[in-house]
Design a protein that fits this description.
2 copies of one chain form a homodimer.
Chain A lengths: L8 H31 L3 H32 L3 H35 L5 H27 L2 H9 L2 H20 L4 H33 L33
């Protein structure tokens, strides 16, 4: 390596951010493809998603290493430090997002072997599109340092919960009506849960972006759609599985 | 504040580590109590777990703030830097562990309103005890800087998967045999999934402890019990929901 080539500190930080942006694009594509593979019963696409996940893992490890190196060697402070720590956090959320997309694809493979269940997979598709949009919006916010867009994603967290709760009820009804569908419906249930958690990661990313830009935490509780039994003033005596917060 | 009281850098780092240890103890207790509340249908205990979760959130935020301050002001390198970043990572895994325990407790409240299902809750209890033990072991490894113990927790990750897979099959069989149990069994399913994920966090902590002590990553794939359809050489034409990796 040319000893006279000294990488400017600013370049190193920009390169780190750029790698996170790239990782974000890959994670977005994985989520979109995974949902597509469910909707179209597309086995080849599902397998491609499963295979590509290792690239996200590699990017995560690389971003972590670079961040630690940067902190150790450059000793950043203030907003540069926040950017570096933010890169590590985002890489972590994106790696988990990729894992969840891979798991949706694995279940898509299984479902493709059984009878089509178009009404239900269409609901998954709709929820998937909402979650994909939130992920895309928050990554746009990161790329362009747009604090309002990050705030907007953060404060509409409950939209995803509403989809999840409705899907959950739909699946339970289906299962109770026809026990032969229980196994397949369980897969769809976990797909819905995975999508909800991808939505959570998008919200995490929104918080990280906000903190990175402003140096402050987004205050308050995340918006949640349905209060769970532990949060209701008078617990209702019914079996409601819709409280899924933090699952 | 007394200007002449200057906190030694080493003290600051030790204090950070001590706070993580304390958070670990609280997370352990939450997991154990949540499982107990399921096994004994103990409504008061479940409510206590739900309420105490905010303490874990507060500790997480505090550890993060202190870590960032420490990095900014003391500019640690080498093993001190790894310790500081390790504290942040552990606090993150422990906060998620607490959320999962809270969610188990919320579902315990719901189940306590219905008919007892002792065979199934006993299975949950057994899986819970295994997961609790792994969490305790890995936190002991952190407290005492024992690299071999961390490695041991990491390499026995598949034990948890085996419990999960068996529980999953048990629950599906139950649901298919009696559709009136579907809602309750779905709660138990998510409890099992939460326990599996707590197990994952214990494994994450093992990796962090290993890296913190040695400066190296634990190599290789985490041990997984049952290969999923995406990993089998010849996909078997059956609906198997047991592949739960990364859910």
């Amino acid at each position: 390596m040319n000893q006279h080539t000294v990488k400017a500190y600013g370049d190193e930080l920009n390169q780190l951010t750029a790698e996170v942006v790239r990782m974000g694009g890959l994670a977005e594509a994985q989520v979109a493809d995974a949902i597509e593979s469910v909707a179209r019963r597309d086995v080849a696409l599902a397998k491609a998603v499963i295979e590509r996940d290792s690239r996200l893992d590699a990017l995560h490890r690389d971003i972590e290493k670079k961040s630690i190196r940067l902190i150790a060697l450059r000793q950043p402070v203030a907003s540069d430090l926040r950017r570096t720590l933010g890169a590590m956090k985002l890489a972590s959320d994106l790696e988990r997002t990729g894992d969840l997309a891979k798991n949706i694809a694995k279940r898509a493979l299984i479902l493709a072997e059984g009878e089509p269940m178009q009404v239900l997979t269409r609901s998954i598709e709709r929820m998937g599109r909402l979650v994909s949009t939130r992920l895309r919006d928050v990554l746009d916010a990161y790329t362009a340092s747009e604090v309002e867009r990050a705030q907007s994603v953060w404060s509409t967290d409950d939209e995803v919960d509403e989809h999840y709760n409705a899907l959950f009820r739909e699946l339970l009804t289906y299962m109770m009506g026809d026990p032969r569908t229980i196994t397949a419906c369980t897969h769809l249930l976990f797909m819905a849960k995975n999508l909800e958690r991808i939505g959570d990661h998008a919200t995490n990313i929104a918080e990280t972006v906000y903190y990175e830009i402003t140096g402050e935490d987004l205050l308050g509780e995340r918006p949640k759609a349905v209060p769970g039994p532990g949060e209701e003033a008078t617990p209702t005596p019914h079996l409601s599985p819709t409280d899924s917060a933090a699952d």
